[in-house]
Design goal:
heterodimer; A: about 110 residues; mainly beta; five-stranded antiparallel sheet; globular; B: about 110 residues; seven-stranded mixed sheet; 11 strands
């Protein structure tokens, strides 16, 4: 079993839809959780990070962590064609330095 | 502008040749990392360095080597011992232990013919 599981998609939605992207993990020691966006043939860029359980909002993006279920989510409101990319979840154990990444979910937002 | 540069963007090499990928950052970050990305797989850690003149193996270090002689630079050598070197290589840096995330470079696509 992989430490982090993420549905690869692809996920296709119409412009303006609410998008829900999810990851599950197995290591209860993970405390820091991140979401990255990666456009084709580019390096990932950090969208959001959260510590422990709870919600965090930044513009159209909301990150949610449920440590009891070992489940994290990223919600995108009012999705735009420019949101079309691969979204990677990532998480750190307390010591840091060795971030574990999900395989990524490919998202297509149709105009 | 602060950031990470990786060169070249595309690299072609014959099987059996060693090749060195460049990574330079001007973010004044202590920690630097090399990841490999293959289709359908998450990023896998090759090596990381917490500070100058120090580095540790990641999960897939076999067939790779690194050096960290300067804070700004963390080159990766892909040796002929690496069984399947064709991949997208990503360099990253972070403050402290990277708990708040990494800053990634644009990547180098290595193709071994």
């Amino acid at each position: 079993q992989k430490e982090v599981e993420q549905d690869p998609g692809p996920l296709s939605v119409p412009e303006g839809a609410i998008v829900s992207l999810n990851c599950t993990y197995s290591n209860s020691a993970f405390q820091y959780f991140m979401w990255y966006r990666q456009y084709s043939r580019k390096g990932p860029e950090l969208l959001m990070y959260t510590y422990s359980s709870g919600n965090k909002e930044d513009g159209r993006f909301t990150a949610q962590v449920d440590k009891s279920s070992k489940y994290i989510s990223l919600f995108i409101r009012d999705s735009q064609p420019s949101d079309s990319a691969t979204y990677l979840c990532a998480m750190n154990p307390p010591g840091g330095f060795k971030t574990i990444f999900g395989a990524g979910t490919r998202l297509f937002v149709k105009a | 502008d602060g950031g990470i540069t990786q060169s070249p963007k595309y690299l072609f090499r014959k099987e059996g040749q060693n090749v060195t990928l460049s990574c330079e950052q001007n973010l004044n970050h202590d920690a630097m990392y090399w990841y490999r990305q293959d289709p359908g797989q998450g990023l896998r850690l090759i090596y990381y360095s917490q500070i100058v003149n120090d580095f540790q193996k990641g999960d897939i270090a076999e067939g790779y080597s690194v050096s960290r002689e300067k804070k700004e630079s963390f080159p990766l050598t892909v040796t002929s011992a690496q069984k399947n070197p064709t991949a997208f290589y990503l360099c990253a840096s972070s403050m402290e232990r990277g708990l708040a995330g990494y800053f990634f470079g644009p990547g180098t696509r290595l193709t071994v013919l």
